[in-house]
Specification:
Oligomer: single chain
Shape: globular
Strand order of the largest sheet: 1-2-3-9-8-5
Number of helices: 4
Number of strands: 9
Strand content: 25-35%
Radius of gyration: 13 Å
Largest sheet: 6 strands, antiparallel
Helix content: 10-25%
Order of helices and strands: EEEHEEEEEHHEH
Distance between the termini: 14 Å
Structural class: alpha+beta
Length: about 130
């Protein structure tokens, strides 16, 4: 089974978003990291990069495959989690604490298109069928 955290927003591409003021912390979900397997590399965006909703935020590589990470909301990259460069496996052990980037939100209304915890659980259960 996979873990879902109340209070976060979720995308259909299995990214999570934690909003604090006008900033959004983003990472990949427990479901995503379990699907990928052991993560061996995380490519981070550059600070200051302006992203539109759906743009590639970075790349996660596992022993199985490489997968793009898409930003579920638009904005400017304010910070990146440089710890992941030396310890990409943190995404496996603590997916909801191992954020990839912080985005200064460009359009807060985009958050309304994301799923809550219950909706995301249901979405994942249907996708596994």
């Amino acid at each position: 089974m996979f873990k879902v955290i109340e209070g976060l927003k979720y995308s259909k591409e299995h990214e999570w978003v934690k909003v604090e003021g006008d900033r959004a912390y983003m990472g990949i979900t427990d479901y995503a990291q379990k699907s990928l397997g052991e993560i061996v590399y995380v490519e981070l965006p550059e600070k200051g990069t302006v992203l539109a909703e759906g743009d590639t935020l970075g790349v996660v590589e596992s022993v199985k495959a490489a997968s793009d990470i898409y930003t579920p909301v638009s904005g400017t990259v304010a910070d990146i989690n440089e710890e992941l460069l030396d310890s990409p496996g943190n995404v496996n052990t603590n997916p909801y604490e191992s954020w990839i980037a912080v985005i200064e939100l460009g359009n807060i209304n985009e958050l309304d298109t994301l799923m809550g915890a219950g909706e995301y659980e249901k979405f994942c259960e249907e996708e596994e069928c």
